[in-house]
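Holo prediction. Input below; ligand is NAP.
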Amino acid sequence: MVKRALITGISGQDGSYLSELLLDKGYEVAGFVRRNATLDLGNANDIKEEVKIYYGDLHSPETIALALLDFKPDEIYNLAALSSPFASFRDKVGTIVVTGIGALQVFERAKQIVPDTRIYQASTSEMFGAPKQMPQNEDTPLAPANPYAAAKELAHRMAVMARHDKNQPQFISCGILFNHESPRRGLNFVTRKISAAVACIKNGKKFDVPLNELGEPIVKDGKIKLGDLNAKRDWGYAPDYVEAMWMMLQHEKADDFVVATGELHTVGEFAKEAFAVVGLNWEDYVETDPSFVPPVQTGPLCGDASKVKKILGWEPKTKFKDLVKIMVHADLAKFS
Ligand code: NAP
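Structure of the complex:
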């Protein structure tokens, strides 16, 4: 029997990689995307012929219900979210409504329409805030330090509650994923901002320079502006991480799993490595600007992924230096 998977947020970084993985495994894949004027599918444009698209919004329970009634998925991957912690400070209500309550809408509509469907919820290491425990695992207390993380905590707690509901338990697994990046990462995230800037500087690009999270050109007067260079994160490669999502839904029992590399690097190290890929010294091009530092800081975040390794056999394949190279080389070709 061919399995059917519905992915909310298919146009995003993870949604597009996950679609490719599931199509390779022989799944029928459907994607739930926001309607926009150009009907652009973002990162999923290249596979639009191979997937079924439902236009809708996590704001709208009706559009979620119609997609579930029509497609009747065996698996739902709830990846849709306003996913930038930094931007969430400027859109607190929107973030809670989409990222928190939107996820709950998915769980509730699924319970009514396709109660046996297995659900993956995209939880995040940001829920740990500025933790005292290092590295963090599934038992580390949650203490969100931005509206995005608070919304994700709401969704996470509702998922765990639905899993333990005595009357009608739902199969909802939560992947507590640490940062994962790729050439498909949004330009409002620091890693992609750096790889795009390196490419624009190296290629001497003067026009159509991409915009940063504040709507300004990423490179201005030959420099890139970054926030806290000492912020520490655990960065993996997105295609490795979507495999863990799929593995969670194949396991006999729904559970929570931390997915991470267990390696810690600073933003400064990422910038240094990225400029080094093209033979440049990062200190000649990077400036710091407090406008890019969030009002409440998170981290250091470093994951202990021993549970997902032990139970599901998942391990990251791509090392930090290779991730940086992949991103810079892709952007050198894109921003030429
Ligand atoms: P992403 O690239 O920002 O993708 C987010 C997706 O959500 C996009 O397809 C976006 O559509 C969609 N979306 C936003 N608002 C929506 C709404 N109201 N209704 C329907 N769709 C909506 O994020 P990602 O990096 O792929 O991450 C996937 C998920 O994992 C997210 O939930 C994220 O919070 C979570 N996560 C990510 C990381 C990471 O490091 N990447 C780590 C932990 C957890 P548009 O194309 O229309 O904007």
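The first strand starts at residue 4 and ends at 8. That is the main takeaway for now.
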